[in-house]
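Thread: Impact N-terminal domain-containing protein, structure

OP (GT): Posting the sequence first so everyone is looking at the same thing. Length is 267 residues per the record. Can we get the structure tokens written out before standup tomorrow? I want them in the notebook alongside the other entries.
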Amino acid sequence: MSQKRPRSPSPTFSPLLYKSDLTEDRSSKFIAIYSPILSAQELRALPEFKNATHRIAAWRRPSTQRTLNSRPVLETGHDDDGEKYGGKTVEKVLMGMKVEGAVVVARWYGGVMLGPVRFDHIRNCASLAVRRWKESESERQAKKVKVETEEREKHDLVQVLYERDQSIMVLRGLLAEKTQPAPSSQSSGAIVGAKVPDYATLPLATLQKLEMVRDKTISWVLREIEKAEETQQKDLGATTPAKVPSDGSTPAEKSKAASFKDPREGR
């Protein structure tokens, strides 16, 4: 029969722990805690397990040994803590779920022998604790990817906004040349002489709104330039006198002359 180990001292730090639900069966209670960081001994010393009848442990960690391709060899082990074959059951959970770390399943004996079903409770509690860590890791990775994606988008938007500001400045200068006096500012956007904001300090949502505002500003300035050019063309047409041919005839006279047919032709 497996011998129970002496109690370990309480851990001096408390990293994230992943706990299963409490399972009860005929007055016996089972619960598991998994940690990718703490050792089995540290998990056993948690206050939650202080009065447990059994603290069944298993671990799976990289060892100092290496494979031929330099990968670390994983060292696995278990401790029944008086619950024969319980440690091996928990160890198989770690191996089957392909995770590193340690897990302890605590059992409080209720006075009734459960038989083989106790191994189902041990296995299910250990699996649930590990699964909750995996779910937490998936969420963490998803958040990390989101943050990295937003940072890239923010970096690109900052560059785009600086380029938009330069374009607006150039277009406003062109519009000022075509209109006298220069039109009053319409629509928000970069203005000549205005202080350029520090876009890098702004949140992504604000940058996205500013990009839309800058695009609208550019569209407005382009329309104003087009209107100014049309006005210039009309003014030019109204002030330019009709050209008189070198022979002194007017266009109407030229047209009339072109349509005149000499009666002598065809003779």
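GT: Both are above now. Quick notes for whoever picks this up: Residues 26 and 112 are 7 Å apart (CA to CA). The radius of gyration is 42 Å.
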